Amino acid sequence: MTDSIVSEHSGGVALITVDAPGSRNALTLDLSAQLAAAVGAAERDESVHAVVVTGTPPAFCAGADLSALAEAGEAGLRAIYEGFLAVARCTLPTIAAVGGAAVGAGLNLALAADVRLAGPRARFVARFLELGLHPGGGMTWMTQRLAGPQQAAAMTLFGQALDAEGAVRAGLALRVVDGGHDDLLAAARDLAHAAVTAPREVLIATKRSLRTTADLGRHSDAVDVEIAPQLASLASPEFAERLSLMRNRIRSRP
User: Fold this and answer.
1) What percentage of the chain exceeds 70 in pLDDT?
2) Looking at residue 71, what is its pLDDT?
3) I need a labelling partner for 174 at 20 to 30 A (CA). Which of 33, 50, 114, 192 fits?
4) Cβ distance 3 to 31 under 8 Å?
5) What is the pLDDT of residues 15-53, one digit of tens each?
6) Contact present, 47 and 230 (Cβ < 8 Å)
7) Which of 162, 188, 11, 174 is nearest to 101 (CA)?
8) How far apart are the first and last CA of the chain?
9) Contact 32/79 with Cβ under 8 angstroms?
10) Pick from 83, 112, 78: nearest CA to 98
């Protein structure tokens, strides 16, 4: 079978799967380009409110294809990065359903999502130094922001790998989902439900505010960032409709 990125849009969720089980879903230049294109297609599809990224079992993503890495200059490296950077830039909420090993660039792909759910066999492994490689793709920045400098150092400098429970304790994963891959995807869809039912423009604006306020130093600055999009949502027909429904439910209570 041909390695590919499989994308399915249903129920308000774009499920994007790295489908290259023979290489444990290692990212080639072509797969990275396909992944970026799939994320872009999800953003353009007005019916999609959330994106779930996963890999065909048993791995999540074994990293970048080593042959592609060996031949890559700067342009080649940036092309390999483009797949997981598209996830990092995505304007829609993103979930990584990590059912197996996320290694190197595969770790970057998992960290690029807003939230990570881990299956029982998930592993989060940097492995750059083991290969004699400097980390790339923003791995050091993402890991420090999510898990702090000490955990980032343990993973990058000392090769510490985290299993599913360890990733949760470190703050790299939200929770462990017991069961198989189907259970993991079902949990991801369940987590995405609130985003699916929210107005899409408000959802996108809220994610944008989260990114902006993360680097602010004062509460008052966050208030200023949020005020304009909140006023816009108050004036929207979606808010008026939902407010009316809520008032009707309150009136109908005994």
Assistant:
1) 100
2) 85
3) 33
4) yes
5) 999 999 999 999 999 999 999 999 999 999 999 999 999
6) no
7) 162
8) 60
9) yes
10) 112
Range 212-241 average pLDDT: 96
CB 188 within 8 A of CB 97: yes
Tokens of 167: 């990733």
Per-residue pLDDT tens over the stretch 155-214: 999 999 999 999 999 999 999 999 999 999 999 999 999 999 999 999 999 999 999 999
Distance of CA 219 to the CA centre of its chain: 27
Helix or strand (DSSP H, E) at 94? strand 94-98
Q: What's the chain's length in residues?
A: 254
Q: What is the mean pLDDT of the chain?
A: 96
- Alpha-carbon distance of 78 to 60, in angstroms, equals 21
Asked whether 140 and 122 are in contact (CB, 8 A), the reply is no
Tell me which amino acid residue 250 is.
Answer: I
Distance in angstroms (rounded) separating the CA atoms of residues 192 and 246: 22
Alpha helices, H only, 214-253 = 219-234, 237-252
Note the pLDDT of residue 249. 86
Q: E strand or H helix at 151, and its extent?
A: helix 149-156
Contacts of 77 (CB under 8 A, 6+ apart): 69, 136
pLDDT digits (tens, 9 = 90+) for 28-37: 999 999 999 9
| d(C-alpha 196, C-alpha 199), whole Å | 8
Average pLDDT score over residue span 141-155 = 97
